[in-house]
């Protein structure tokens, strides 16, 4: 993991997000201050409605804050227009969601290739799929793959453009614990071998033990940030 004496990849200052639905106002984020560093594996932990996904979406340029600042490698994202945010997402960020969003009519290789064709310096789809343990499943369609395998294809797709940041929103949420551990091992390996800043959302406290740092959120605020002095390998996790 990169030392925190280096400049942060993300710096978030005073971040708020307010949603207005008719006469109802929802404060999703209430003044978030956070720094995230290259090579870290960070778990955002908290119950549904605590603001985890809102924070992740703002970091990834999928949503805009109501107030506050987001800096990425010294560049202020808060003022970026949609074109600049699209370029930021395309060049720097990989996303992994709870549901795999694979294209059913494309093979695993073709699903990954759909992203590498628009990336600046991608890894070959075959290499990305080997990295997630699917080197023998290149020409299988999503319907021929298990849920865990489909999620690993989704991870391969996210990392094939060699992003500096990998943002994962409940990547094991649709999986049983055994399959979930396999997926977490893949994320652990990507973080270790590619040095990708990896931010993983979960409401599952058992997963937090694999992180460098755990950011616990509650009611739109950061309730606690703690460092794991001894990280638990993903294969040893249970929940």
Distance between the termini: 26 Å
- How many helices does DSSP assign? 6
**Going across the major beta sheet, what is the strand order?**
6-7-8-3-9-10
Oligomer: single chain
Q: State the share of residues found in helices, binned by percent.
A: 25-40%
The CATH first-level class comes to Alpha Beta
Q: In what range is the share of β-strand residues?
A: 25-35%
* CATH A-level architecture: 3-Layer(aba) Sandwich
* Secondary structure: number of strands: 10
Helix-and-strand structural type: alpha/beta
What is the count of structural domains?
A: 1
**What integer value in Å does the Rg equal?**
17 Å
**Secondary-structure element series:** EEEHEEHEHHHEHEEE
Which consecutive residue ranges, at least 5 long each, have pLDDT under 50? none
CATH superfamily: P-loop containing nucleotide triphosphate hydrolases
Overall body shape: globular
| CATH fold naming | Rossmann fold
**What's the mean pLDDT score?**
93
Largest sheet: 6 strands, mixed
Main attributes?
globular; Rossmann fold; alpha/beta; 239 residues; six-stranded mixed sheet; 6 helices
